[in-house]
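Example S7 (structure tokens).
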């Protein structure tokens, strides 16, 4: 018997379907169904996952595209027999979604009447209202409508079935059979119950009336289906499936064409732009090898018909350039001389080996992966330019599927099972997810969950099941889809939560699966900071700088000397503690060293055990050897150790005989293997291919282990090359113009790895004077000024928490030349009481109040300014007690997050509240492996994706930052201090390797009570 399931909802029918699309496909194939329709509610978000699985695994299962829709009391499933029907369905879904707020939809009768190509499967209600809908469907869609019968084995099913048969006779609509599937196996029923309870925002117990009565909406075996449905219904069902021939592979992307001047071809225009660019980029003439590469790239662009792709990106970056918005292309753009000439990237091809295979691949037959980063504070201008140029019908952002992770899963499942919110919060706060030796389930049991109870067992099982389930669609960080015609011909479009934003229903992986163009318009904070630094340098020194100019100056030894000392707080990419600990070991001396540095401090190289071999070979401690010339050609630039994703892919081709297409499949598997384990299917082919080509088994196994280490974490050289440009540019600016660089960083927050307080601490260590926020000296932004013959940073009013920008701007714009002389003069300007209180708390009124307490008193005494009291003498405030140094510190951090007075560690030490300890600047005097005690404010915790389960703590004392290594066992034994301490004392062992110093933690002591009232935030687990 043949059977085709025509009504099946995946978990992309959010909080309704209880199985992934891939699970449904696999189960349908296992049950030997002939076809499966994925019909999520007013959505095509899940169907691509099903399509991709069927295509990649070559399953003998037809996939039908469709969607279930509700309009008043009408419920229909629309199926796509052909491309016209598919475009029609996309249009209907888009219209319905665009009329409603994010996550909702609103159908109109016109949507239903306008259907000309879709098949309509009608699910009657069983009530009298069906007669009216039947008349409408008969009048408008007499030949493309079927009545669906689903068998749920419920109490009133016999009467409902008879009702459907009666409608069929009256309206002459054939009957077909559907399962209305919500889960691939019956054991997902508890999860389906929980999903419905979450959707209703109440417990399962209170949702009983809304729950499924049994498990019959799971996929059923064909012999059971044959017993439930009449043979003629099943015949009709299979007939519908046979008539549905549309396949998602039929979708063809068309590039926008209006970018080409009239009378010119796209390729001719692109060649013209590249030629103009060569004159700007290579003022002394194009080197012969570069010219050959340009021609090679252009020929392949023409062969694969990608000129519109490059012209689209060129148009966007030229808009940014015209508006003074700093940008930088990365991805495969960093490997392209064409992109360099088009000014899409500032990566000079003379400084990096051009990996042309990564730029464009004939085998992949897809556009190159080009991301463009723009200033994070001005990217919205670029986004709105794209919307204005192409219109809402032709441009939208890709979606990102937000899935259940540990915290959201625990909270939602727990609430559905009736566990109190306070207990769930306790679980979430006290489970250490970085402890790989003790899973979260065991930790929750330790925290009081009873695993042997029914509720406890269900909780653990359901949290495990729901993790990874999609919760909702969000907008991608910047992946734009732009089309020649209406975008809804290709994919449904819906509203984003942000105003003036629309998103398509597919995420970036789905777009890649269908080879649809995505232009990545991304945001990068460092670009904002660099552009602002350039402006400050020009304003104060008249020197004009650009990223391209800095790269043309070639490598500056003084800048690299600073980098080698790990003096990189605030610079791009190489500012984390892990990067800082590597810099003195790797000792970058040139641009390509930075490319390696950025990529090597990643979980991929670490898990693949590539870091130590590379460092040993670089220092001459280990001999460099290659098993063949082919492998040498791939690995020579990284001393025989695969560091980059491209090298791993190329190794599969030269050492194991992979074709370009197979290597690309390997790349995709690497990107997601932690999720689905697909990488293992390549193991035999890799090992066999290497063995056949004469490579030793040990070498082959090591290569595969390294590939597994790269799984999901491998960093492409193309991205690293682009990031290295910004790392060098920011380092150069920090070295030569520190005051301007720090000022720009502060004006670009939030961004980067460090808080304003940490940046200012580092600026002071570089002898930059910091002037406090002042109502008479500060602008809204932080500024650079001369102080005692040197550049200094004048803190701006923006640093005051909660200060209204409009009011702050008013104060600056209306400030008298001689400055304000009293609180009264500010009141006369119209400054409200809340703003005055914030200024007083930040000590910004110090010029006419001795201290912040006196300023507050003056504010409280403003009634004296009223006419009735104008003749009374002013109250004296000399009796008000001055705040102590610690009170000043607390006030500073509460009001601004920074303090220019003594560091908390200094104050606590002076008060005798700390036991004997070693400061950061004295650790270098300690012997290797000696015992030590350090104390500092916790400013960061990092847990790299390594098997060791180590956490790196950053502690800040009054002389700098201390790197503390906390092993999993230490964290587990002292979980409270590990998770919650703000002020931490660590007793441990000093480890020194060259200039790198760590403290290996033994005992963790939480001293947070000493900083009661002190506001500090650490950057945890990034």
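Recovered sequence:
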């Amino acid at each position: 018997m043949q059977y085709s399931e025509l009504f099946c909802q995946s978990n992309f029918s959010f909080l309704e379907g209880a199985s992934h699309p891939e699970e449904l496909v696999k189960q349908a194939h296992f049950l030997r169904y002939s076809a499966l329709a994925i019909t999520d509610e007013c959505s095509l978000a899940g169907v691509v996952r099903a399509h991709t699985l069927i295509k990649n695994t070559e399953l003998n299962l037809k996939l039908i595209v469709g969607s279930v829709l509700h309009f008043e009391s009408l419920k229909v499933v629309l199926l796509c027999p052909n491309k016209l029907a598919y475009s029609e369905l996309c249009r209907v879904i888009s219209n319905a979604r665009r009329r409603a707020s994010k996550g909702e939809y609103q159908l109109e009768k016109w949507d239903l009447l306008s259907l000309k190509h879709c098949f309509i499967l009608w699910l009657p209600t069983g009530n009298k209202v069906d007669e009216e809908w039947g008349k409408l469907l008969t009048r408008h869609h007499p030949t493309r409508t079927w009545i669906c019968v689903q068998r749920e084995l419920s109490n009133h099913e016999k009467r409902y079935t008879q009702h459907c048969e009666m409608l069929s006779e009256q309206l002459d609509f054939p009957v077909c059979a559907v399962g209305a599937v919500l889960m691939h196996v019956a054991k997902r029923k508890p999860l389906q119950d929980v999903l419905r309870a979450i959707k209703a925002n109440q417990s399962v117990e209170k949702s009983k009336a809304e729950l499924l009565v049994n498990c019959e909406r799971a996929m059923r075996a064909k012999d059971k289906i044959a017993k439930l449905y009449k043979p003629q219904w099943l015949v009709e069902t299979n007939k519908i499936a046979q008539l549905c021939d549309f396949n998602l592979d039929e979708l063809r992307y068309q590039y926008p064409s209006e970018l080409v001047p009239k009378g010119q071809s796209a390729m001719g225009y692109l060649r013209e732009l590249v030629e103009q660019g060569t004159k700007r980029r290579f003022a002394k003439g194009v080197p012969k090898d570069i010219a050959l590469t340009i021609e090679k790239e252009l020929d392949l662009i023409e062969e694969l018909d990608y000129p519109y792709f490059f012209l689209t990106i060129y148009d966007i970056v030229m808009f940014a350039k015209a508006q003074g918005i700093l940008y930088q292309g990365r991805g495969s753009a960093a490997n392209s001389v064409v992109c360099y000439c088009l000014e899409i990237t500032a990566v000079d091809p003379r400084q990096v080996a051009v990996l042309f295979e990564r730029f464009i691949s004939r085998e992949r037959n897809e556009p190159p992966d080009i991301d463009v980063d723009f200033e994070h504070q001005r990217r919205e201008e670029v986004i709105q330019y794209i919307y204005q140029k192409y219109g809402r019908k032709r441009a939208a952002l890709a979606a990102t599927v937000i899935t259940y992770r540990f915290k959201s899963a625990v909270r939602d499942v727990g609430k559905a099972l009736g566990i109190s919110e306070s207990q769930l919060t306790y679980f979430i706060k006290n489970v250490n997810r970085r402890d790989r030796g003790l899973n979260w389930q065991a930790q929750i049991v330790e925290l009081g969950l009873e695993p042997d109870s029914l509720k406890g067992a269900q909780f653990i099982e359901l949290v495990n099941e729901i993790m990874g389930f999609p919760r909702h669609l969000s907008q991608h960080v910047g992946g734009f889809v732009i089309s020649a015609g209406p975008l809804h011909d290709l994919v449904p479009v819906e509203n984003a939560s942000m105003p003036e934003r629309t998103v398509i229903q597919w995420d970036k992986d789905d777009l890649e699966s269908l080879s649809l163009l995505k232009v990545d318009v991304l945001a990068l904070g460092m670009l904002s900071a660099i552009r602002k630094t350039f402006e400050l340098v020009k304003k104060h020194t008249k020197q004009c700088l650009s990223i391209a100019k800095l790269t043309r100056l070639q490598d500056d030894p003084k800048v690299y000397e600073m980098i080698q000392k790990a003096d990189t707080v605030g610079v791009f990419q190489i500012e984390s503690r892990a990067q800082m600990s590597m810099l003195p070991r790797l000792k970058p001396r040139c641009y390509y060293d930075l490319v390696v540095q950025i990529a090597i401090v990643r979980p991929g190289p670490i898990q693949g055990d590539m870091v130590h071999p590379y460092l040993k070979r670089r220092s001459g401690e280990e001999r460099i050897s290659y098993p063949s010339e082919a492998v040498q050609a791939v690995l020579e630039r990284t001393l025989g150790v695969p560091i980059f994703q491209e090298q791993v892919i190329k190794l599969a081709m030269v050492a194991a005989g992979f074709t370009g297409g197979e290597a690309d499949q390997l790349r995709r598997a690497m990107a997601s293997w932690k999720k689905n384990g697909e990488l293992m299917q390549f193991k035999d082919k890799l090992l066999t291919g290497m063995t056949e080509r004469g490579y030793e088994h040990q070498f082959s196994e090591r290569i595969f282990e390294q590939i597994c280490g790269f799984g999901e974490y491998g960093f492409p050289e193309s991205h690293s090359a682009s990031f290295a440009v910004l790392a060098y540019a920011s380092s150069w600016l920090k070295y030569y113009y520190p005051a301007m660089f720090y000022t720009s960083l502060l004006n670009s927050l939030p961004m980067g790895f460090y808080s304003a307080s940490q940046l200012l601490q580092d600026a002071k260590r570089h002898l930059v004077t910091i002037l406090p926020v002042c109502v008479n000296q500060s602008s809204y932004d932080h500024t650079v000024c001369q102080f005692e013959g040197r550049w200094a940073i004048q803190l701006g009013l923006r640093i005051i928490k909660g200060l209204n920008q409009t009011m702050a701007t008013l104060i600056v714009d209306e400030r008298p030349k001689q400055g304000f002389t009293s609180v009264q003069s500010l009141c006369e300007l119209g400054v409200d009481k809340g703003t005055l209180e914030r200024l007083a708390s930040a000590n910004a009124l110090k010029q006419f109040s001795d201290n912040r307490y006196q300023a507050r008193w003056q504010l409280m005494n403003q009634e004296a300014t009223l006419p009735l009291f104008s003749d009374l003498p002013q109250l004296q405030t000399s009796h008000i007690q001055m705040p102590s140094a610690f009170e000043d510190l607390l006030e500073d951090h509460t009001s601004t997050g920074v303090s220019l007075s003594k560091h908390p560690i200094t104050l606590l030490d002076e008060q005798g509240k700390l036991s004997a300890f070693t400061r950061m600047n004295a650790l270098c005097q300690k012997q290797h492996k000696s015992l030590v005690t350090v104390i500092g404010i916790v400013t960061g915790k990092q847990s790299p994706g390594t098997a060791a389960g180590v956490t790196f703590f950053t502690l800040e004392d009054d002389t700098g930052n201390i790197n503390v290594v906390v092993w999993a066992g230490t964290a587990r034994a002292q979980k409270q201090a590990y998770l919650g301490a703000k002020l931490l004392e660590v007793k441990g062992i000093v480890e020194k390797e060259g200039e790198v110093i760590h403290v290996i933690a033994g005992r963790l002591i939480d001293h947070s009570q000493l900083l009661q009232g002190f506001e500090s935030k650490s950057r945890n687990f990034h």
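Notes on this example. The chain has a mean pLDDT of 87.
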